[in-house]
Amino acid sequence: MAFITRVFFWGYALMLVGIGVSGTLIAPWELRTVFDLPIDTLAAPAAATLLNQCRFLKAIELSFGLFCVTYRGDIFHIGVAHRLFLIGVFSGVAARFTSWIVDGRPHTAFVAFTVLEATTGLLVWFSVASVSKADI
After folding, report:
1. pLDDT at 136 (0 to 100)
2. 33, 40, 88, 110: which is deepest, by most CB within 10 A?
């Protein structure tokens, strides 16, 4: 179980870093290709604002990924880093799930991301909880 937990954790952390870096650099391409959003048809201020926000959100993904990599040891022990990791993961899952309910079903890839992210959070949570109970 520990091996699977680490695989999910590293997959999640490296995905955040990779998507964060690439997204800040290729935001127009991502919006057109991944989200099928024709930003070229938007008025210049609207396109600039959307790209600005997209790059900002990708930088936040990068930051959380770097947090995961930097504090990987602390994330697997009860403490502040562990709680922040779980808050970050489950906040993202809650946002995706809420959007699914309110806005409709997203593309299958994003449903998969929701499941993988929730699984990662649960695996880390149970991994740390089981170690903590063993220590008692």
Report:
1. 41
2. 88
- Helix/strand/coil (H/E/C) assignment for every residue in the chain: CHHHHHHHHHHHHHHHHHHHHHHHHCHHHHHHHCCCCCHHHCCHHHHHHHHHHHHHHHHHHHHHHHHHHHCHHHHCCCCHHHHHHHHHHHHHHHHHHHHHHHHCCCCHHHHHHHHHHHHHHHHHHHHHHHHHHHHC
CA dist 116 and 5 (Å) reads: 11
Find the mean pLDDT for residues 26-54. 94
Q: What is the pTM of this model?
A: 0.89
Enter the DSSP assignment of 112: H
How many degrees, rounded to 5, is the angle at CA 123 between CA 133 and CA 80?
A: 65
Q: Which amino acid is at 70?
A: T
Sign, CA torsion 33/36/41/42: negative
What span, in angstroms and rounded, lies between the C-alpha atoms of 136 and 118?
27
- Kindly tell me if the per-residue pLDDT of 131 is higher than 90: no
